[in-house]
Amino acid sequence: MLNLRFERISEEMVFRSIYYYLKAVERGETRSLPAYLAFRASDLGIVKRKRKKQTNVFDSWFLTIAAAP
Q1: How many other C-beta atoms can be found within 10 angstroms of the C-beta atom of residue 32?
Q2: Which of 30, 40, 49, 58 has the maximal Cβ count within 10 Å?
Q3: What is the structure's pLDDT at 54?
């Protein structure tokens, strides 16, 4: 439904969102749990944000070798 890689889905937030789904069902929501979570994925924080590409410390520093004393 979301067409995302599994690593992008927060399992913890899926479990936390079940509470909100149950409350929505009490109010008359007729969608299934997966459809509800897919529809509200951004509101409920189910999809993780993309991380910035980590740079290697050694690639970003200019290292020099000191001359022999």
Answers
A1: 10
A2: 40
A3: 74
